[in-house]
Amino acid sequence: MADAQEEGEGPRCVGCGGRVKTLFVQYSPGNIRLMKCDNCKAVADPYIECEFMIILIDLILHKTRAYRHILFNKLSIGSSVDKVIGDALVGNIIFMIMLFLGLRFILKLSFDITRYREVLFAVIISSYFKLFLFTMMVWEFPSSVIFIVEMFVLSSNVVALRVVLQFPKAHCFGVCLMAHAAKCLTEIWILRTP
Ligand SMILES: [Zn+2]
């Protein structure tokens, strides 16, 4: 994967941000040698051999090196990340539109900007499980895990809505389910459209 260097693309050294030809050389499965950066002479990307948790901690600690690893050496390699992020964005917009339409017209929530802002905040906070979905674009997991994470997001959205709006649980579940279904259908539709 590291030799997929094209014009203006390709891996970078996480230390200095300079371009490198390749991040590692693989001799046999599981037996790799990390390459050094020509510019700063340090190992170009030591995160390649790191556990996911270590990278996550460095991301939380705002370490530039970890962000370079994710943005240049992980996300830019291989699959069309633009499409993944684009799909997620469209899906999330549909989700929010359906959620607000459901609240306004099915649950008859009066239009009050502060209240809707609270709903938006609650939904964002309760969707933190999606962080795991984001990491799944980088580290591959079986699709059943994605489904389980979606279910977690759905149930935590319901709890958050119930706390903010004090509507019955079934009502919150109905609206959230509708919004999630619309989002999933949109994503499936986008994926099937060439
Ligand atoms: Zn360097």
Automatic annotation (TrEMBL):
Which keywords does the record carry? Endoplasmic reticulum, Lipid metabolism, Lipid transport, Membrane, Sphingolipid metabolism, Transmembrane, Transmembrane helix, Transport
- Give the membrane topology: Multi-pass membrane protein
Task: Give Gene Ontology CC terms.
Answer: cortical endoplasmic reticulum; endoplasmic reticulum membrane; Golgi apparatus
Membrane-spanning intervals of the chain: 88-107, 119-139, 145-165
Q: Where in the cell is it found?
A: Endoplasmic reticulum membrane
Swiss-Prot/TrEMBL GO biological process terms: intracellular sterol transport; regulation of plasma membrane sterol distribution; sphingolipid metabolic process; sterol metabolic process
By its UniProt entry, which InterPro entries does this protein fall under?
Answer: Arv1 (IPR007290)
Q: Which domain of life is it from?
A: Eukaryota
Q: What does this protein do?
A: Regulates also the sphingolipid metabolism. Mediator of sterol homeostasis involved in sterol uptake, trafficking and distribution into membranes.
> Which family does this protein fall into?
Belongs to the ARV1 family.
Q: Under which name does UniProt file this protein?
A: Protein ARV
